Amino acid sequence: PLTGPEDLALFGAPPVFDTPRHVNRPAAPDRAAFDAMMDAVWERRWFTNDGPLVQELERRLSAFLDVPHCVLTSNATAGLDLVMQCLGIRGEVLLPSYTFISTAHLLALRGLTPVFCEVGTDMALDPADAAARLTERTDAVVATHVWGSPCDIDGLGALCDAAGIPLLFDAAHAFGARHQGHPLGRFGRAEVFSLHATKAFHTCEGGLITTCDAALADQLRLARNFGFSGSDRVDCTGVNAKMSELHAAMGLANLDAFPATRAAARAVHAAYRDGLAGLTGLRLKCPPAAEDNNHHYVVAEVDARAFGLTRDRLVELLTAEGIWARRYFFPGGHRSPPHAAANPGLSLPRTEALCDRVMLLPGGGAADLAEVAEICRMIRFVAGSAAAIHNAGKAG
Ligand code: T4K
What we know:
By secondary structure, the chain is α/β, with parallel strands linked by helices. It has helices spanning about 30-45, 50-65, 75-85, 100-110, 125-135, 155-165, 215-225, 245-275, 305, 310-320, 340, 350-355, 370-385, 385-390; strands spanning about 20, 70-75, 90-95, 115, 140-145, 165-170, 180, 180-185, 190-195, 205-210, 230, 235, 280-285, 300, 325, 360. It folds into two domains: about 5-25 and about 260-390, Aspartate Aminotransferase, domain 1 (Alpha-Beta Complex), CATH 3.90.1150; about 30-255, Type I PLP-dependent aspartate aminotransferase-like (Major domain) (Aspartate Aminotransferase, domain 2, 3-Layer(aba) Sandwich), CATH 3.40.640. Helix content is about 40%, strand content about 15%. α3 (about 75-85) packs across α4 and α8 (about 245-275) packs across α13. The longest helix has about 30 residues, at about 245-275. The chain is globular. It binds ligand T4K.
């Protein structure tokens, strides 16, 4: 039984878990299915360059996401970069500051200007704020379906249509989610999913570009392979952004397991919802059923005043227990080097508040329900002892 701060690892007690419990613990698919595909790869001696497993995964993802064109890449960052190249984007690109730093980095590396925008109440790019930052130099908008929830697709679509610029979606978090009954993947000019190991559906490392634009898909296929359209014919500039057969095999095995992984993630999320219900100052993000969120992320907002401790103090206490909660996307793109220097004085209060409040807890389909119960018990204890913990300060 937990009685006071002395029972916490930060104050010298043994931790709840002796090995770290991570956010986004990767799903591990059926090993036998993966090994059988590896045997065939060895037999064929065809390891990469648009191999049969990559082609099969692209076909299966097209069917699963109900989108005509799927182009697999080495990772999502390279995928979004290819889209920028193939659409000839120049000048300024609007993006939310509250997203993974990869997008701002690739825009800057491409010689484009990332223009950081505010979030709405859904934690995603606010169309009204984007409209206010739109100039004649704006050439595209890249919006994130953050934490697997569709962003304001219709509001941003209207904005981009009126401006005559492409709307692109960073769907890194959102595999399997739906907007108005349709799987994400067919919206905007293109959507880019990350298939990194930490994602709901993964290929260890990988990216997926989806589009309804056949000409764009053809260009993307050329550009991901140095621009080669034949063994010695080059049609355009390109890089190496290809997916290997090993990664595609991981994807095929994980795609078979995805419905079960998603159901497990939903059960984990529900266990957190029950386990943390009624806590003052800690609010779990609960996606509406209609969006079919993959429930891969367990996102909590900590209101320091109501909870009695700051989010950072709670993360510190949990980490000491082996519960490796993480603050995302701290400190926000506009406050991160090197982008902060290019945006002196830029203030995005809603984004900054989120960066100071949000914490991810270990979740997803690979998490363990008994461990979730322990994590909730610990958070409830910390909440109930907040004043004593505050007064005890840090051990040592
Ligand atoms: N857009 C968005 C909105 C994104 O979130 C991302 C990637 C991208 C674009 C770009 O996609 P890619 O180009 O990567 O395809 C991780 C991932 O590396 C990154 O892919 C991901 N977002 C981001 C949100 O998370 P870090 O720096 O937080 O990684 P790391 O190593 O700290 O891992 C996160 C957690 O997962 C840790 O608690 C440890 C755990 N973990 C990680 C790995 C790799 C495991 O348990 N097993 C593992 O194998 O960026």
